[in-house]
Write a structure and sequence with these properties.
Strand content: 15-25%
Distance between the termini: 24 Å
Order of helices and strands: HHEHHEHHEHEHEHE
Structural class: alpha/beta
Radius of gyration: 16 Å
Largest sheet: 4 strands, parallel
Number of helices: 9
Low-confidence stretches: none
Bound molecules: zinc ion
Shape: globular
Helix content: 25-40%
CATH class: Alpha Beta
Length: 213
């Protein structure tokens, strides 16, 4: 799914070479890293990590392209299983209580048939032995494409996009919010701010890829 070669076993999504050479970040070993730096000062964040560096034209881009656009939700699920096995060994992720995937625009989810972040969350959930809640954070309305806007415009555009159903389910919990790729962080910031409205919660973030700036 990352290079076109066949994986050694049918239940795997990358070949032996990609298992070895895909550019892992190892951010899970440091509480503060390039991911947390990108979001520094925007909201209270416990820690954050991406599995891979996402480089334009690289194998991780192809992997995520297959996940999002080629009807391959299993890429998210298997990647989540693998990454969860790594995260569960890190003290920074050992006390996570629950996982919340970033919801997709309802219209886009209907087109795609699934939410790629749900698939990733499901894999993480199984290997980390932590539940995931996909109906707590809801995306209510379609927002315009984000790329050409300033950070303030993006945030304003996001305003009201996420709603929280069932504060009582997440009160006092250590929450891991998950998405496919970190770019500007506007979407994750918007989700985190909504979740942080609930008393006593602590937020950490995980993605499959972190895009170059
Ligand atoms: Zn490969």
């Amino acid at each position: 799914m990352a290079c076109g070669e066949k994986p050694p076993m049918p239940q795997q999504v990358v070949c032996t070479s990609c298992q070895y050479y895909l550019p892992k970040t190892n951010f899970h070993l440091q509480k503060e890293n390039n991911f947390t730096d990108r979001l520094w000062g925007r909201f209270p964040l416990h820690t954050a990590a991406a599995y891979y560096h996402f480089i334009k034209g690289g194998r991780v881009q192809q992997l995520i392209h297959n996940l999002k656009y080629n009807n391959k939700p299993e890429v998210g699920y298997i990647t989540g299983l693998n990454y969860g096995n790594i995260l569960r060994e890190s003290v920074l992720y050992r006390d996570i209580d629950l996982i919340i995937p970033v919801p997709l625009h309802p219209k886009r989810q209907r087109q795609r048939g699934y939410n790629q972040s749900d698939s990733f969350a499901k894999g993480l959930s199984e290997s980390m032995d932590v539940p995931f809640y996909k109906n707590v954070l809801i995306r209510s309305e379609a927002t315009d494409t984000q790329t050409k806007k300033s950070r303030l415009e993006r945030l304003e555009n996001m305003d009201g996009a996420f709603q929280l159903k069932g504060h009582e389910k997440i009160q006092g919990k250590n929450i891991l919010i998950v998405d496919d790729v970190l770019t500007t962080g506007a979407t994750l910031e918007s989700c985190a701010l909504k979740i942080l409205e609930t008393p006593g919660v602590r937020v950490s973030l995980v993605t499959i890829g972190i895009a170059e700036r």
